[in-house]
Structure formats: C-alpha cells, structure tokens
Amino acid sequence: METKILDQNNIEIVGQLLRNGEIVAFPTETVYGLAANAIDEAAVTKVFAAKDRPQDNPLNVLVETKDMMKQLTVDIPDYVDVLVDTFSPGPITYVLKNAGKVAPNVSGDLTTIGVRIPDHPIALSILKYTGLPLAAPSANKSGRPSPTTAQHVIHDLSGEIAAIVDGGKTNVGLESTVIDCTGEIPMILRTGLITKEDITEVVGACDMAPSLEMPSNKYKHYTPEVPLILVQSETQLIELVEEEKRKNKRVGVIVPEAVQDMHVQKMYILGKEETENARNLYDVLRAIQKTEVDVVISAPFKSKIVMNRLEQAASKVVHKAD
Ligand code: TXA
Ligand code: MG
User: Fold this and answer.
1) Residue 209 located in a structural domain
2) Is the pLDDT of residue 205 over 80?
3) C-beta neighbour count of 150 within 10 angstroms
4) What is the mean pLDDT of the chain?
C-alpha cells in the first residue's frame, strides 16, 4: 500500500479514507495517533495489525465533544463533568464504563473504554468532519517510542497505513494522563502533563493506581536500540561513563546541555526546560542508533513524567544507594 502524505488542507480526503474503513495517522497535541472509525470492527483490526499491538491492550477513543463522550459511556460519575470542563480538550484520557456503541475489539474483554478530547486543530477538524469516534492509539510500532513527528510515523508505518497527516512536531511530546473514572475517586493509570495534584485541586481527591493495573504495563515501552541506563546524579553519570569506556564501549549520554570535557561518542541534548525535555524525549530515544553507540547513559531530569518514561525505556535504573 502506498501511504499518502497529507497536510491540514486535506481534511476531506482523510475523512473519506476513515469512512471507507482505512486507517490514518494524524497529530494530536500529545503524540501522533493512528486512527480508525471506532464503530468499524474491521478498521479497528487494521490498527492492531499495523502496530503489532497485542489484542489485550485496549485502544483509546478520540471524540470531538463532551456530548459524544457521554454517548459512548454509561454511569459517568459527577466529578467527570468537572474534570472535562477543566481539562478537556487536553492531554487527559478518561476510562469510563462502556456503553457498547464502539466495535467490541476497541477494548477487548474490558467493560470500560478510554475516551479523550484532543486539543489540536487537525485532530479536531478530522473528528468534526467525520462526526465519528476514532479509535486512536499512538502511531508507533508497539514497544517503540510514541511518534512526535510525521517522520517518526513514516519510519514505523509507511506502506502499512492509508495516509499520514503531517502537522509538524507535537507540542506536549508525551502521551496523555490516563485516569480510571469508574470508582468514587479518580485513579491515575498513566502519568502525564496533568498531574495528581492538578486533579485533586479540582475534585478534591485522586489516587495513583498500583503500578500493575494498567493493561499496557505488561509490555515493554519506548525501547531504544541499545541498552539505556538511567542514573540519579551527575557524579554517577561521570563514573558510569568511565566504567563503560574501560569496557571499550561506545558510550552515548542523554544530558540537558553539552558537557565540556566529557569525551563520549554521542551527546543527546534534551534541553534545560521541563517542557522542552518532554517535547524532545522521544526524538532523542529514536535518534539512538546501534551503529553509533553500544550503550546510552541518561542523566536525571527534574520533570516527573520525563523520569517516568525514561524509567520505562531504561534497561537498568541505577538508584542512589547503588
Ligand atoms: O496522548 C495519548 O493518549 C495518545 C494520543 C494519540 O491520543 N494516545 C496514546 O494511545 O498514547 P496508546 O494506545 O498508546 O495509550 C493508551 C493507553 C494504553 O496504555 C491503554 O492500555 C490505556 O490507555 N487504555 C485504553 N483503554 C483503556 C481502558 N479501557 N482501561 C484501562 N486502560 C486503557
Ligand atoms: Mg502507545
């Protein structure tokens, strides 16, 4: 299949493809999504196949409005109204009881679905044009970092999907916060830009899920091509770089800015600001090539969500006491 490369002027073409059961990648404010008509079981199957996604890892669904969110779900707790009014459109996915309107393979054996209103003009115009709920996980091969540019999507999925809408680099750069809203208190399943504190401030309470409750937690994420070691201090970074060099390894480092006098094969610069770190992380993880380095060591970063994603990508995390 030849994958069409489109832009924001081609919304009608995208809409037609989606209505015809094809799958299309487009930008949201977090990362690029790979979308299918959520009502069309065969189209949803294509998303799992293109991503090599295990069937038991549910897809979330993008919708344009709160009304559409309500049509797809039942027994919505009152606090969800307040959260939606505060944070949506935005980087937050609500897991709610499924009304059964979307194709059954969207969320497998679960009785819930994850729903999100994205805050991106291209995503919103596609949703508006089609009037459909769109099943849309991140547009990467399973296990790879989520795509933050059209080039990342082309790398992973070119030839396997009908089209990619190029809308430039995404703004947030990391996936949405996922919260389970089926209980009395919202519970965070995946951390993101919207934090436990943000949610607590609005509705009075918010729990963190025990780490294994997320369907996707069984699977490895964001893996770069070579082992990635995450350290907790600059001293540890310098020591470990020397240790790996003594083993004749070609060493790369992930650092906020270039470090003078550190002689390594590659320096991957993540930036000094937290928002910059989040925006650049997946680009950096994808830039790591086994033809260039044997091991990469990452400095610690201030942002909790950047650290969360680095921990998941790392083959080893060196703790303070080690
Ligand atoms: O920011 C985002 O959420 C991006 C953009 C494209 O919208 N999407 C995204 O999709 O990151 P995905 O599929 O890579 O991550 C969605 C996560 C998965 O880890 C999945 O396990 C979880 O949400 N999820 C989806 N439906 C769920 C459900 N019913 N119950 C619990 N977790 C669910
Ligand atoms: Mg994903």
Assistant:
1) yes
2) yes
3) 23
4) 95
Compute the distance from residue 137 Cα to the ligand 2 centre, in Å: 6
- The CA-atom distances, in angstroms, between 297 and each of 30, 173, 275 are 26, 21, 21
Percent of the chain with pLDDT over 90: 91
**71 compared with 222, residue with greater pLDDT:** 71
- Of the candidates 139, 173, 170, the one whose C-alpha atom is nearest the C-alpha of residue 154 is 139
Cβ atoms of residues 60 and 115 within 8 Å: yes
- CB under 5 Å of ion ligand 2: residues: 138
For the chain, helix (H) and strand (E) counts, in that order, are: 10, 17
Domain end, chosen from 183, 200, 218, is at 218
Burial of 159 (0-12, 13-18, 19+ CB in 10 A): exposed
* Residue ID of nearest Cα to ligand 1 atom 29: 113
Asked if pLDDT for residue 280 goes beyond 60, the answer is: yes
Instruction: Assess if residue 248 is contained within a domain.
Output: yes
237 and 183, same domain (yes or no)? no
- The full length of the chain comes to 322
Q: What is the mean pLDDT of residues 125-139?
A: 98
With 80 as the cut, is the pLDDT of residue 282 above it? Answer: yes
Residues 175, 72 within the same domain: yes
Our answer on whether the CB atom of 182 is closer than 6 Å to any ligand 1 atom is no
The mean per-residue pLDDT over the stretch 209-226 comes to 72
Which atom belonging to ligand 1 lies closest to the Cα atom of 91? 1
Residue 270: Cβ-neighbour burial (10 angstroms; 0-12, 13-18, 19+): buried
- Residue of the CA atom closest to atom 13 of ligand 1: 137
Residues of the domain holding 284? 228-317
**In sequence order, what are the beta bridge partners of 6?**
165
> Is the CB–ligand 1 distance for residue 33 below 6 Å?
yes
Residue 18 sits in the same domain as residue 131: yes
pLDDT at 225: 87
